[in-house]
Amino acid sequence: MEKLARKQVQELTPYLSARRIGGSGDVWLNANESPFNNEYSLTFDRLNRYSECQPEALINAYAAYAGVKPEQTLTSRGADEGIELLIRAFCEPGEDAILYCPPTYGMYAISAETIGVERKTVPLTADWQLDLDGIQANLDNVKLVYVCSPNNPTGNLVKREDIISLLEMTKDRAIVVMDEAYIDFCLEASAVDLLEKYENLAILRTLSKAFALAGLRCGFTLANESLINVLLKVIAPYPVPIPVTDIAVQALSESGLARAKEQVATLNANRAYLKQELSQLNGVTVFDGWGNYLLVKFPDGDALFKAAWDSGIILRNSPIEDCVRISIGNQEECEKTAAFIRGQLA
Fold it and tell me: Which residues belong to any copy of the Aminotransferase class I/classII large domain (predicted)?
């Protein structure tokens, strides 16, 4: 079967998600999931029917939350599907390219490689900001530029002025895709207001993080209507199951939004606690983080990661030397993790 697969697929290395990596423990801080497990009500009287392609209630609810028009909103199976839809819709295999700036989320590259689209990289600067000159020098044949803010795994925000410069640079040339999977933890930093001025802007969002619905697989692409209409040409006919819509609409209701806001405040407080605790340790650097995770540099990151793993505290190792990414859990999980690390470095 391997030999029958397309050449690009034969050569592909699957994205190592937290679940694929596995682990065994009672503190899971490796997948940037929410520790909150909220309850929802469901009815099962419509499962014999297909769902709408773009359920009106869900589109209207998320558009209202995001501050955009319904016609600027598309829902999909997580933001991951949004990444792939953009490549399928705008990139010719073997001709066009995407560009992204490592260290960053790995699915941009894998989605492009699967489809046979070239991947160009311009690494972030030493302070993990965009290298605008480097990007400009590599824009030939590029149709999509992926920018993650807050960036995963570094946690930093990309400078707003650099986002605007990138949008100006790529006008009539490429689409800038802002991955805002973690923006709900710092909504004031969203680029959503720039949609009014820039037709070449697309924004990816998700309910997985701040809304504690990682298992629901519900994401959104925000863009101007003409771009959304292109994506509607390539999306599957029934991308969002009926139970997903029902739960997502409840999460986006007035009471659901109030709960999410309260839980975000709790996680941001837990993040501040963990940052303060770890910053006091000798040889440890905790980088500023704006999502529901922190990137932490240790004297020996691999050793710390393995020791935590063996003790049932499952963290995420990082491509950045000696760095470990730690998701923000509940207060007990953060306290247990901080105490464990303190003991390891004593």
Answer: 41-339
DSSP state of 70: G
Domain edges within the chain: 7-36+256-341, 56-254
Q: Just give the CATH number of 7-36+256-341.
A: 3.90.1150.10
**What is the C-alpha end-to-end distance of the chain, expressed in Å?**
52
Helix ranges (H only) for the chain are: 7-10, 18-21, 56-66, 78-90, 107-115, 132-136, 160-169, 225-234, 242-251, 254-279, 301-310, 331-345
Q: Which helix (H) or strand (E) holds 179?
A: strand 175-179
Residue 164 CA, chain-centre distance (Å), reads 21
The answer to whether 288 touches 156, Cβ cutoff 8 Å, is: yes
Over range 82-102, report the average pLDDT.
97
CATH code of the region 56-254: 3.40.640.10
pLDDT digits (tens, 9 = 90+) for 251-307: 999 999 999 999 999 999 999 999 999 999 999 999 999 999 999 999 999 999 999
Asked whether the predicted pLDDT for residue 343 surpasses 80, the reply is: yes
